[in-house]
Amino acid sequence: MTDAEAMHEESHAARVLARVHDALAAAGGWLSFDAYMQLVLYAPGLGYYSAGAEKLGARGDFTTAPEISPLFGRCLARHCAQVLTGLGGGEILELGAGTGRLAFDVLSALAAQGVMPERYRILEVSADLRARQRELLARLPAPLFSRVQWIDTPAREPWRGALLANEVLDALPVECFIWRGALFERGVALGADGALQWQERPARTTLRTEVERLRADAATEWPDGFASELCTRVGPLISEVTGSMTEGVALFIDYGLPRREYYHPRRATGTLRCHYRHRAHENPFADPGLTDLTAWVDFTRVAEAADAAGLDVVGFATQAALLLGLGIEGEVAAAPDEATRIRRASEARQLLMPEEMGETFKVMALGRGWEAELPGFAHQDLRRML
Predict the structure, then answer these.
(1) Does 374 share its domain with 323?
(2) What's the domain count of the chain?
(3) Is residue 142 part of a domain?
(4) Which residues neighbour 329 within 8 Å (Cβ) at sequence distance 6 or greater?
(5) In what helix (H) or strand (E) does residue 297 lie, and over which residues does it extend?
(6) Do 141 and 238 share a domain, yes or no?
């Protein structure tokens, strides 16, 4: 990083911090964590996903599966091709398309298969990321690029097809709590030195009721000091983005767990993580506006949200099982030369191995009017764990 870039980042973090101070003052000195997370990630022009810092790839803060290898997009293209063929046509909607790499690889692979969506729509809240997506996707052949459309809000008119959401749910703001024989909510306040810090207060009735439900579902006792989080925004998001989907399959890919594992006593510090320059840490108050904040996904909550939205959980598996079911081994073997095969094999290991992304990431397929088996879930069915 150059001195100029460092000064720009320092100035930006200072502006975000000033906005947090204003919010704290307006709220009487204490902010719920989800309100803080909403501000530092999404405040217009200031939040991590709203400002212009490079977020993905070697110069960013983290790397996603599409950035690791085009194998990921080629496999998901096979899933999309099955959905589009099964419906006799349709379109693709991608939520939060990052750099646009997944859309690029999916469209390229679909063109090679001769199965094209009527439209490829991208719902993107970040103006900066939207510009990066447009720059990359403009390299596609004109007949492919002409099918790409950006939308600001979920589609209202009826549509059918495939929805793709890779690492979207983990970026939703979460509420944080801690168990001390009674339930306390963890929020944000200023310490004596003026720095942001955690501060606890007795949990609100709504939070207490929800946590008691989770605790009962998890069928466990928590030790004193057990801290975790929950995301009540999952249900409204799924309802909103699938509400106009008349037929099709929505695929949500993210790191997460079924509820009983998520809230197991051994996971006593929660799953909230921070990412800055490819370094993971656990201080959500460091470099606000420059740091990505995420929490793992409670996939039992996703299944509950699907049921409430009139969707069926038609598949739940690890990322490794999904990619194997969608032919990643064949993609590696079909490399045109030995050097390419070796490179693809290395990329596939990152996507498949348990110590990499293969087991940590889960995939849930939510269907509406869909009864056919999905090849991506032929190797594994984890729905019983929900």
Answers:
(1) yes
(2) 2
(3) yes
(4) 348
(5) strand 297-298
(6) yes
Range of the domain at 123: 65-169+234-255+296-385
Q: Tell me, what's the pLDDT at 56?
A: 47
**Which single residue is written with the structure tokens 């090849």?**
375
Measured in residues, the chain has a length of: 386
Residue-wise pLDDT for 65-96, tens only, equals 999 999 999 999 999 999 999 999 999 999 99
Structure tokens that stand for 78 in this block: 């096979």
Q: What is the pLDDT of residues 251-289, one digit of tens each?
A: 999 999 999 999 999 999 999 999 987 688 999 999 999
- Under DSSP, the state recorded for 375 is G
Taking the CB of residue 83, how many other CB atoms lie within 10 A of it?
26
Banded model confidence at residue 57, pLDDT cuts 50, 70, 90: very low
Same domain, 321 and 373: yes
Judge whether residue 219 has pLDDT over 90: no
Which residues are within 8 A (CB) of 42 and not within 5 positions of it... i.e. 6 or more apart? 48, 49, 50, 125
Return d(Cα 110, Cα 120) in angstroms, integer. Answer: 11
The residue with tokens 């709590």 is 177
Angle formed by the axes of helices 101-113 and 70-87, to 10°?
50
d(CA 307, CA 347): 36
Q: Could you tell me whether strands 245-257 and 159-166 are parallel, antiparallel, or unpaired per DSSP bridges?
A: parallel
Yes or no: say if 242 and 200 are a contact pair by the CB < 8 Å rule. Answer: no
Residue 94 near residue 165, CB atoms below 8 Å: yes
Across 292-305, average pLDDT:
97
Q: Are residues 242 and 215 in the same domain?
A: no
Beta strand 196-202 with 183-190 is antiparallel
DSSP category for residue 225 = T
The answer to whether residue 59 is domain-embedded is no
Under 8 Å between Cβ of 94 and 73: no
DSSP 24-41: HHHTTS-EEHHHHHHHHH
Specify the DSSP element, H or E, that contains 256: strand 245-257
CA within 13 Å, CB half, 171: 22
> Distance between CA atoms of 318 and 271, rounded to whole angstroms?
18
In single-letter form, the type of residue at position 378 comes to A
Q: Does one domain contain both 239 and 160?
A: yes
Q: What's the mean pLDDT when you consider all of the chain?
A: 94
Same domain (yes/no): 150, 24: no
